Known about the structure:
The structure holds 2 protein chains of 2 kinds. Chain A is an all-alpha fold. Chain A folds into 2 domains: 3-79, Rna Polymerase Sigma Factor, Chain: A; 102-189, Winged helix-like DNA-binding domain superfamily/Winged helix DNA-binding domain (Arc Repressor Mutant, subunit A, Orthogonal Bundle). Helices cover 66% and strands 0% of the residues of chain A. Chain A is built from 9 helices and no strands. Chain A has helices spanning 10-32, 35-51, 61-79, 86-89, 109-121, 125-135, 141-148, 152-169, 177-189. In chain A, helix 2 (35-51) packs across helix 3 (61-79). The longest helix of chain A is centred in the N-terminal third of the chain and has 23 residues, at 10-32. Chain A starts with 9 loop residues before the first helix and ends with a helix. Chain B is α+β, with helices and mostly antiparallel strands. Chain B folds into 3 domains: 4-95, no CATH class; 104-245, Jelly Rolls (Sandwich); 252-323, Phage tail protein beta-alpha-beta fold. In chain B, the strands form 3 sheets. In chain B, strands 1, 2, 3, 4, 5, 6, 7, 8, 9, 10, 11, 12 and 13 form a 13-stranded mixed β-sheet that branches. In chain B, helix 5 (77-96) crosses helix 6 (100-106). Chain B starts with a helix and ends in an 8-residue tail after the last strand. Mean pLDDT of chain B is 77; it is low at 75-83, 85-110 and 327-331. Classes of the chains: A mainly alpha, B alpha+beta.
Amino acid sequence: MDYSKRNFSKDTLTLLFDRYFTRLTAFARTITRSDTLAEEAVLDVFLKLWQRENLQQIDRLDTYLFVAVRNASVNKLRDAKRFRFEMLDGVDVPLARYSAPRGDDLLVEDDMMKALETAVEKLPARCKIIFRLMREERFGRSETAKILGISVKTVDNQLAIAVKKIAEALNIDLSDPLKSKIFLSFLLTF
Amino acid sequence: MKGMQHLIARWLTFTASARDRKRLHAWRDRDEANAAWVDTLGAWWNNPAPRPENPRAEAVRAQLSERLDDRISTGNPGLRRLVRAVAAVAVLALVSWGSLYIAALSGYFDTEKRVAVSTRAGQQSCVELPDGSLVWLNSESRVEFRADKQSRRASLVGEACFDVKPDKQHPFFVEAGSARIRVVGTKFNVRHYAETERIATSLLHGHIVMRVPGFDGEIDLLPGEKVVYNEQDGTFTKSHLNTNNDILWQNGILIFDNEPFELMVRTLERYYDVEVIYDEADFEHIHFTGSINNLSIYKVLEFINLTIPIRYTIENKTIHLGLSKERPRRH
């Protein structure tokens, strides 16, 4: 292959590598569930990037890298023969119930945040990835959808499922007063 | 009617409608526990703890470097080097025959050949200059340089962060508008968008020297210093502040420090590739201070709404913006 046309050097690539390594391996790990496979996936992405002629044609570098890492991670898993894309097809992990004290014993905010982290850890795999991309990597709905190759609607639904599970884990009742009021008045009228 | 979890999800992604928010508030106010949970959820969602650096970075970087070297050397390097040498000799022979013209056409020896890289709204880019210096180009910006290793000269319109390869013998020059910046080897940010008539240069590390029209001497910049030159009246100010803030755009973070509303809107348009239509008279004396960390444009508008009551509609890439009629009463 002729690399002479490339307009960026090894130093540029290393610079990008340093800048994104932590974020990308953390993301790859959520798919591969193995540090080694995650590292290999990220390595593959940078080796592939090296084959490109330039970086200017990439619109948003972070989204591009996350998409590439997702694909590489899936490939790594496939190679490892352990693959069914369970991450994105969702195998539900049963949620352990977190017994949050109620009323007067309200959790102080710090404890509550810890409880939220624990609840996220226990989310189904697919849900967890989406939730993390949006909260920890600050990707928007459409970028998250692009990175995972799913629709924005799926992202919305998965986020709602995550919220529901997190509420359940902390014993929060999500039923809607308006809805029940309407239902009640409906009952009373007849 | 969708369940409360959908409303909360929309609220977190700032896509909740006024009706969604009303329902969510009713639910929140029903129970103290609900309020505590949803408030904490919101705060927690918007403030993720910074992730500790992966300690394996160094080891994996070494692997990457090794594999890159493998790739570079595969494909019979000996033969390739020979071919290149023959080609060079051939071209040299042509030149010595007086056919400079052909060399110029091939672009190989043409040091006058200029290269320009530009970004559109919503794009950022990273460019490597022939000497190995790096330029991180912000949206709607353009950097121009000569395809010559020795030249060490670049001109800029817009905003960019330069990471210049150190070389004491050959200083690097950047032209932005009427200002000239001389660099030895350093990292600095230059912002010169047409609408501001100001050239802001922030130095992160190293040492740079600036020359501007109307001032005979040179302006020295030390790390952490920022010089803002006003092209219109020829004045400049130097301040010492956290210049790291000035390159946060590379990480998707926008910072406004008492920024006039119209300039903030220009930055948002450029960053999000949208067009904002509003009545300038309404926003004339409004300044905005705050930082925006990788937010969607919806979230940004909600964010502005916190300090300046606005109403807006979004249609494709056009945003109509107006002051909200229900302004909070002054006490």
